[in-house]
Amino acid sequence: MARISLTNLRHTYREPARDEADWALKRLDLNWEAGSANALLGPSGCGKTTLLNIISGLLRPTEGTVLFGERDVTALPPDARNIAQVFQFPVVYDTMSVYDNLAFPLRNRGIPQPSVDARVREIAAMLDLGPTLDQRASGLTADGKQKISLGRGLVRADVNAILFDEPLTVIDPHLKWRLRSKLKELHQRLHTTMIYVTHDQTEALTFADQVVVMNEGMVVQAGTPVELFERPRHTFVGYFIGSPGMNVLPATFEGGVARVFGHAVQTAVPPKTPPSGARLEIGVRPEFVRFSAAGIPVRVARSSDTGRHRIVEALHENAIIKLLVNEGETLPGDRAFVSFDPKYTQLYADGWIVEGGRP
Amino acid sequence: MSTKIPNQKGWLLVLPVVVLVAFNAIIPLMTVINYSVQETFGENVFFFEGVKWFEAVLHSSRFHLALQRQLLFTGIILAIEVPLGVAIALAMPRRGPWVSICLVLVAMPLLIPWNVVGAMWNLLALPDIGLLGRSLNAIGINYNYTRQPFAAWATLIAMDVWHWTSLVVLLAYAGLSAIPDAYYQAAKIDGATSGAVFRYIQLPKMKRVLTIAVLLRFMDSFMIYTEPIVLTGGGPGNATTLLSIDLVKVALGQFDLGPAAAMSLIYFLIVLLLSWIFYTVMTKDEVQ
Amino acid sequence: MKRFAWLVPAVYIVFVLLPIYWLLNMSFKNTNEILGSFTLFPRNFTLENYRKIFTDPTWYGGYLNSLGYVAMNTVLSVSVALPAAYAFSRYRFLGDKHLFFWLLSNRMAPPAVFALPFFQLYSAIGLFDTRIAVALAHCLFNIPLAVWILEGFMSGVPKELDETAFVDGYPFWRFFVRIFIPTIAAGVGVTAFFCFMFSWVELLLAKTLTAVDAKPIAATMTRTASTSGYELGLLAAAGALTIIPGAFVIYFVRNYIAKGFALGRV
To answer: Closest partner residue to C263 among A45, A88, A142, by Cβ?
Structure first.
């Protein structure tokens, strides 16, 4: 088990890279503690699979180093790094039985059969594969096969990290949660470092202790699920996480105070003066927007029911502001006012959060 | 192995194929069947004769001999071309400048019209003026394919291997390309040797493609006509008279449409039966 | 051991090239020299054979005709086979297994037998001596081949790929063209090449269904072999030239044939 560190990492598929757009991964530094459960979250094309492949050794980064603990593994191939990888589509040896699939990595390392047998049965039990051990691997369902893939990674005791590349994509929706809980349970039991790549925020937020959000090759924010939810450092994080996403409204900054549609808005910390000429926005999640007696005038346009609460779309001129209203609460009439909870309101300049100035 | 969805809409997707193929298949087939049960004395006069022709053909020793020669020939070339083709495909480069060069060079024998192939090898193997014939005789082998049945067979087989192994190579190569990288990656992570990779990943994943290659080569070699007729004319004597050649001799040489048509149908049925057996055996453990 | 793996294709390629070298050798000689002596390089090097082909309309016309119907047939066969192969691969419908085998069975009949019936059929519908006739007739054996090969490759693609795309909201045809076909690129490439090849070299039906207008190169070449004895030099030159279009085709599809597919999206 080792701490994984990426330093000064950059990668391009096009050599030589001519401008910023050519870099699939922009410069980044990341650290993952040993034994932690982590997620790499982002939309398709954001570079998360590239990053995963660099960690696993399938890809050699154009610049930068990858450290497992103290060891520089940047140049090492996957089999020398002691990692396990679970791919999007199940990768099993079709002609072998489930037992032989799980035993394969151990046998290739020359481990004696009794130890192999014990270990295989142990892992199979952990993954609920016990009854299927003698079946042909090709006959299992998709989630069974993914479990085999996972099992092949776990069966080696000296695994440094397990990397998951969108592993639940092919699983039936009603089985997804089961496999997800199983992964979490496994992590708590084995304390292996796990890195889980996904574009599904629910998977990331429920599984990981630390989530790295990526977009267009950049690490946008790394933090706990709570941090990402309550204090997004980038409008993209606000928009991508949470359903519905954060409200992002054009703002101005005058006299030390942010204003939306002319109305003063308080933020969590009084912001520093943002750089002039930057595109200013206020971000606040619908969870933290409320109808109030005074504030920004809006017209209630639409509401949809999600069961636990209602999502109300309110319009100020043409801007949409979404807010969550509890079940049973009556909506004000056509015209109303909304206000934002300052604790969860942030000012953004060109997408990035504007830090606090004075205490 | 995931199951297929029952979906009668499948017929819609298949319809153009069925129409085009059936148009070309059924009408001519009807004509042949028609001929096969009739007797003709020329002048477009036909008499219905029932299964007389079928019985005659099935009992003729000439037919049996041709069939035996054919089975021997097909057996030999399958045993050579399939493993050889796979071995070559495994060793061919997948990336880099050599890929194009290899593919083009490998494809060349397939593109030459079959009569030219036959003529080429005919001249190539001539003992006095052909490169092959002359070289063999120069190093002491008494080689003359026009007179020696064994030499004729050897030349015929060499020609077929030269001509058609590339088909297996290209199919196997494409089949190998279609194996997703993730399998190789997983095998690497699992510490598998290249022998294990071949046995557990490449070979199973190439199974369908190899089935096609085997069936194609089986059918085409069973019906082979042009190349051997140009190479040896069926000789020396009858040594290389394979089924097709015999059939044409009967049909054209004696203008007996009846026996010829009957023979063709029997021929067709043999190929059908053997193909069906091959097909069933090779796909038997596919879960549907 | 692995380092010498390249020897296998290398030796095979030498084996492949020797008769072709001999063919080229003959194409630069006249018939007398070919039959009269054994020379590794033409003693009287002549371009006469090639000149004849490039200037005589029956010859180069033959090439163009062949190219015409072969191109038509390849495009037709592959386009029609793609949806059909998908249906065979993904759907279960009434009679599907039998239909599949029936398709293959169309390649099992000795073609000599069908020459006359084909002639009658295509004359009856007024398509005799057209390139379309040959293109259509070749569908008999090329479409089944295309369906078989494509189905084989399609079955190697996990069905979950389709389902994921549908869940993501892709309409069927867009999924098929943008996502599915690229994953079976190797299969499409090799199918296209084989359809081209089998149609290109098919002599009997091509000769039977044409007379003057659409006369293919194959017919011209067999004519060379019959009347005035073997005009071997000319035949050799013609044979050498037939390699070229196919070489282009495989060069064109080389990237498809060698292409793999990554499991999953970025």
So the answer is: A88
